[in-house]
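ok so i was messing around last nite and threw this chain in just to see what happens. nothing serious, just curious
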Amino acid sequence: MTPITEVEGRRLALSNLDKVLYPATGTTKGEVLHYYAATVAGPLLTHLDNRPVSFLRYPDGPDGQRFFTKNPPPGTPSWVRTTPVPHHDDEQARQVVVEDLASLMWAANLVVEFHTPQWRADAPKMADRMVLDLDPGAPATVVECCAVALWLRERLAADGLCAYGKTSGSKGLHLLVPLEPTPADRVSAYAKGLAVQAERELGDLVVHRMKRALRPGKVFVDFSQNAATKTTATPYTLRARPEPTVSAPVTWAEIQECRTPGELVFLADGMRARLERYGDLLGPLADPDGAGRLPGAR
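result:
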């Protein structure tokens, strides 16, 4: 029998709580739900706030079927908020907005990664953050990503912009920059310029094009996730990896001192201690007073 629980006055059916989702660590679905409810709900909801969510679902664990969905899944409760979202052809679709603990637990019960755009639901295509996804091509690792991140941090600072880092939860790093609301196409153009300059300055280490043949041993600076139609793994989401890795905020000291890839791998069971030690390292992204302005913006 599927247990029924009440979260903030909403009745939820939470299924298969004993099902092992991460065989490498024996992590069960119940433990995944506990991670979201008891460990990261506060900061995660801050970063999901008023943003349409795309889900990467992996209901049978990372070794099972995975599928990406933007539309509200079948059976979405009527009390889960949805918002209109423009698509490529300018037609309106709808996506879920996870705005409270009940919505978070309903979504987590589907076994998902949370992915969000760089803009908010009340201002489509107006980015309030920029992302640079640093993706290493083997044999490069996150260690090389850290070297590129440090260069980008200084380059952004020269333009009056402040960058914050998090792991992708996979192989690389994400740099996030809070912005005054700016058209997504302008942010994309600026981010591309940074990637091109990074390749010019760090040619032995960086590539700005996605072509696989160019990427072995280098860090791909992916600027494309700033496009209005693209999304990025939300801070604190679990990833569909062999272990329950987290897209975890990191300090610049950790980035600077990283010498082996394992130093920047964070699992669900370690996040409580990190939050107690550091708080939400990406909290400044939600503070409008800390938003920067792209060069040339008025």
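not much to say yet. The chain has a mean pLDDT of 95.
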